[in-house]
Amino acid sequence: MNADQVKKDSIGQWESITPEIRPGSTKNEDGTLKPFYLKRKFTLNPDDTFELDVTNLADPYANVPIVKIVIKGHIEWKGEHPIAKGAQKVDFSADIEYSITPLLQSFADILNKFTKNFNE
Asked: Above 70 in pLDDT, residue 119?
């Protein structure tokens, strides 16, 4: 499949049908990675722009959303992937929007410790 066909077939929307489990960057006491949970919604537009909404969750049942991240930007198609036959290599640039919205007060409190108040 050539790059034009991959691009054409990729246009549209993909969404998690259930919460996903991903390995986290912190470890449990036994050394195993702590999991984190998320739901994703990805849209690829015909003009080579994309939108990605990620909601991180505190639990595998999506009862406690922690934060919503919205990323919008452009995709640069780089050609055939050197390892995955039939796949295309692309670069994603978050050059339109990158926003983080805390959905849980304790997470907002953590963010506030590490962000600068630009109104001061």
From this structure: no
